[in-house]
């Protein structure tokens, strides 16, 4: 799983029938420097916290993931990959349909709170 | 699996049913020199560890086996889990 921010959505009209009705979001994964910056700003005056991962650039690609939790742009979300993503989407499928949809990433939680203790 | 250090925790009240009651921790991946690579993953923690602990994180079916040994665990919503607390490495 990874933590990321929803930055947009994707839609398509030509796709496998199993994928019809699925809402697809674009998510940008947070890297260590992002989280360290957030922790620094949340700490108010404490600032000056060294960011060990400062040298690492956020080069991760955007991830397209299915969503059944009605997340939207600006939301922080948890995204699961692989079989866990298909199982997570199972409840959103028509009754009786097996979780064999052609997806490999899905939003599994909309994040309320992130606590960073050290970076 | 990867090696890393727990740096925090994540909460989300709106989640899929399979994540009920799971403790979710943020793990910063480490490289061979034990320096952070910048990559951060979220893993299910069944060992009740704390920030600063060095851990290994298993992915995929290996992660599901941490929660419930297979083979009948394909209903679990889990693609990353803390597999071990690292006490030493060289």
Describe the structure.
The complex is a heterodimer of chains A (119) and B (90). With 119 residues, chain A is of the alpha+beta class. Chain A has helices spanning 32-42, 82-89, and strands at 2-10, 23-29, 63-67, 76-81, 105-110, 113-116. Chain A has a five-stranded antiparallel beta sheet. The relative contact order of chain A is 0.27. Mean pLDDT of chain A is 81; it is low at 43-56. By secondary structure, chain B is mainly β. Chain B has a single domain, classed as EutN/Ccml (OB fold (Dihydrolipoamide Acetyltransferase, E2P)). In chain B, strands 4-3-1-5-6 form a five-stranded antiparallel beta sheet. Classes of the chains: A alpha+beta (119), B mainly beta (90). Chains A and B meet through α1, β4, α2, β5 and β6 of A and β1, β2, β3, β4 and α1 of B.
Catalogue the unreliable spans of chain B: none
Can you count the beta strands of chain A?
6
Alpha carbon gap, first and last residue of chain A: 19 Å
Count of discrete structural domains of chain B? 1
Unreliable stretches of chain A (pLDDT < 50, length at least 5) are 43-56
Strand order across the largest sheet of chain B: 4-3-1-5-6
Distance between the termini of chain B: 17 Å
CATH-derived topology of chain A: OB fold (Dihydrolipoamide Acetyltransferase, E2P)
Largest interface: A-B, 43 and 38 residues
CATH superfamily of chain B: EutN/Ccml
Strand residue percentage of chain B = 35-45%
What general form of chain B does the structure show?
globular
